[in-house]
Design goal:
alpha/beta; eleven-stranded mixed beta sheet; Amidase signature (AS) enzymes; 13 strands; AS_sf; single chain
């Protein structure tokens, strides 16, 4: 544990212990209002868990760096509350947040998990981090990720491998697996991830969480270390749909530093929380995208969970329509994604602005240094090889537009409100194996929104005492987040599939 945090935390007055396990924003605010909890005690509670379970015990290895100012900020929050006990609490007042380490937080390094970016001390907050702080949140820690957000297993040259708290032999998905493992294990209340292809929803699926990839243009990417800005976005990773809605209220909005957010400015509701309706599935028309399900024996554990989850959703009044359109997610990955064509350009532009304490100024420098994690070496070489193939890049962008029109046409023809499918056709990969058969490409290649919620677990075994989590993904038209949140909330309330991992139940 950071010495300054430990010293400050140990000075806190003795009070009844607040159980942070699967706490929510509303529960924390109620405890703060009642005087049974202080923000300092809350931060202390999470830091204790990180010390006992992330850095010791099962060693989940999700937290890359603690914010040394977290308890000072908590003390200021407690002082504010003591001085203004009747004032309305800001929406995220006192809430400890875990932030993926490819997003800038003032006063902390932003490394994207790469030793090459050590020394990249942020002087300003990313737009979303500034919004979170203005809403009262406390950045508790930066989290591990798959290096440069360029893989699905969450392993980096700085931190090594993050473990899945539900099955310590498996990865937590990626690339935002450090944030997801930390939220699943209750090392923080809310999480911030990024998503270029699968990177919010994959770890949400693998860690029994909610993960929202927003419509392109809804949330600013300013302050993000990019992989390819046609597909890169930022979004919430939480334990409940309600908390994801609260985060989206705070994070969404126009930012002149990211001009694409002008597209989302006119689509903001009064509050995304207004969409939370336990009866929200009644009357919905949802297409079951059958080509995104596997048919081999290896797919049976996921298919079994999805079959049961879809039956519950149908019982809530939703009409489920089988869609047999042969959209092949593997073909989309191979032929439609554009990030490899943009990665060198966008990453080089970011690195050129880094402080002199950073040893690299380009992707070529990263390759020359030779100390990037081996799992990203192939991605870097591919990106260099494709960086100047303008004809192929334009063709990818045209295919993305064709896919948008195909999906809008399909949904119109069947009068669908949303599509549904498993985020991953097989269980999340074991450590040392590559991630395979993920379905996040549909949203990343189109820029349309998608949300993953817990669908259930595979059968328990010795490695996974609860089973391995399976995530259900709902996909919608651009800026249909209120509808997706309504469906997701109603499904979440009916399924009741969230369980804390046994490996980290107690500190």
């Amino acid at each position: 544990m950071d010495a300054a945090l430990k010293s400050t935390a140990s000075a806190q007055p003795d009070r009844a212990q607040f159980d942070v396990t699967d706490a929510t924003v509303s529960a924390i605010h109620a405890a703060l209002r009642s005087g049974t909890l202080t923000v300092q005690q809350l931060v202390h509670g999470y830091v204790d868990r990180i010390s006992a379970l992330d850095r010791d015990g099962p060693r989940i290895n999700s937290i890359l760096a603690l914010n040394p100012h977290a308890l000072t900020e908590a003390a200021l929050a407690d002082a504010w509350l003591a001085a203004k006990p009747t004032y309305p609490l800001p929406p995220l007042f006192g809430v400890p947040v875990l932030v993926k380490d490819n997003i800038e937080c003032a006063g902390m390094e932003a490394t994207a998990g790469s030793v090459c970016l050590k020394g990249n001390l942020a002087t300003d907050d990313a737009f979303v981090v500034r919004r979170l702080r203005e809403a009262g949140a406390i950045v508790l820690a930066k989290t591990n990720l798959h290096e440069l957000a360029s893989g699905g297993e969450t392993v980096s040259s700085i931190q090594g491998q993050t473990l899945n708290p539900y099955d310590l032999t498996r990865t937590p998905g990626g690339s935002s697996g450090g944030t997801a493992a930390g939220i699943a294990a209750n090392f923080g209340l809310l999480g911030v991830g990024t998503d270029g292809i699968n990177s919010i929803r994959s770890p949400a699926s693998a860690n029994n969480l909610v993960g929202l990839r927003p419509s392109m243009g809804l949330i600013s990417r300013a302050g993000l270390i990019p992989c390819g800005l046609t597909q890169d976005t930022i979004g919430p990773i939480t334990r409940t749909v309600a908390d994801a809605a609260v985060m989206l209220d705070v994070m969404a909005g126009h930012d002149s530093a990211d001009p694409i957010t002008s597209q989302g400015a006119s689509h903001l509701p009064t509050s995304y929380t207004q969409a939370l309706d336990a009866d929200g599935l009644n009357g919905a028309r949802i297409g079951v995208l059958r080509s995104f399900f596997g048919s081999a024996d290896v797919h049976a554990p996921v298919n079994d969970v999805m079959r049961q989850a879809l039956a519950v959703i149908e019982a809530q009044g939703a009409a489920l329509i089988d869609i047999d359109d042969p959209i092949d997610p593997d073909v989309l990955i191979a032929e439609v994604l554009a990030h490899h064509y943009e990665m060198q350009r966008d990453l080089d532009a970011y690195l050129a602005r880094c402080p002199s304490t950073v040893a690299v100024r380009s992707m070529a420098d990263i390759i020359a240094h030779g100390n990037a994690h081996p799992s990203v070496a192939g991605t870097l070489k591919t990106a260099v090889a494709l960086a100047h193939d303008e004809a192929a890049y334009r063709e990818r962008l045209q295919r993305q537009e064709a896919l948008r029109q195909r999906l809008l046409g399909l949904m119109a023809a069947h009068r669908l409100d949303a599509l549904v499918y498993p985020h991953q056709r097989r269980l999340v990969a074991r450590i040392g194996e590559p991630q395979s058969e993920r379905n996040g490409v549909l949203a990343s290649a189109t820029g349309f929104p998608a949300i993953v919620i817990p669908a259930g677990f595979s059968s328990p075994d010795d490695d996974a005492p609860l089973g391995v989590p399976v995530g259900l993904e709902l996909f919608g038209r651009p800026f249909s987040e209120p509808m997706l949140l309504r469906f997701a909330y109603a499904a979440e309330q009916a399924l009741q599939a969230r369980r804390p991992p046994r490996a980290t139940v107690a500190a």
